[in-house]
């Protein structure tokens, strides 16, 4: 009986969630929305005005924007923006911690040069946004990394908001401006795994596996896979390959005691800080993923992005032989091979 119960429990633990089961549901229709506009890009000004005015007047929603948007000279001078400018609410990064814990669903439009995380086209935004507001959409729960800096012989700096970071793509530890190789100790759940000697180390989420990590030679991981990718940057060892570890582990990264130089750490390319000898960085998977709204579904969106943005496995297809030419080609090759073998035998005799 115990064996049967154990098998049942194991089967429960190994149950894999179907990606198609992750659907967007609202307890009630949303009344407010935050619109993030790409900065320093004049091509998005008119689409931004069209979207915001439609949300305010047609959908009767409260729209918030970054404070810098209202300071944009080109927007301020736009006659189509003036009528609803005073209706917008504003926030400033650092004062509103809306992305530090539970995150609202994110709907991203492809209006840039790559758009790997932006599956929606803007041309029919009214229909697509309406579908989302009505709850007709699939979700991808994109995991994030929680990173805490700990200084040598001191308490963790997690008590201060600027020393704890949530990362969607990757945290990078590198040698910075130093001419020497980095010398970084890597621990996994307290066990020393290896010492990184090279330009540095990338610790990425599955979402970040298609960013800096893949450029450094890592594999691409679907964002629904619960894992952490560890990728060396230009390691001074041919056998040092990227590894994938379980999502539930804690990574500790330290500057080695015998290192010639310090290291530098950045979080999604921002908030760069110096790690001195004895300092450490603790990295775990956050319990607060980022819910990303799918244009179609988890699988289609991801592979469409691989094909469109990274041109994954793009090549000219090999042409097929027709039956007659295939037979002639094979016969000709067999004849040539026979003659070659005969000539070789004659020369040896």
TrEMBL record:
SUPFAM superfamilies: NAD kinase/diacylglycerol kinase-like. InterPro entries: ATP-NAD_kinase_N, ATP-NAD_kinase_PpnK-typ_C, NAD/diacylglycerol_kinase_sf, NADK. Keywords: Kinase, NAD, NADP, Transferase. The keyword Lipid biosynthesis does not apply. Coiled coil: none annotated. Pfam families: NAD_kinase_C. Gene3D superfamilies: Probable inorganic polyphosphate/atp-NAD kinase, domain 1 (3.40.50.10330), Probable inorganic polyphosphate/atp-NAD kinase, domain 2 (2.60.200.30). The keyword Protein transport does not apply. Its EC number is 2.7.1.23. It comes from the Eukaryota. Belongs to the NAD kinase family. This is NAD(+) kinase.
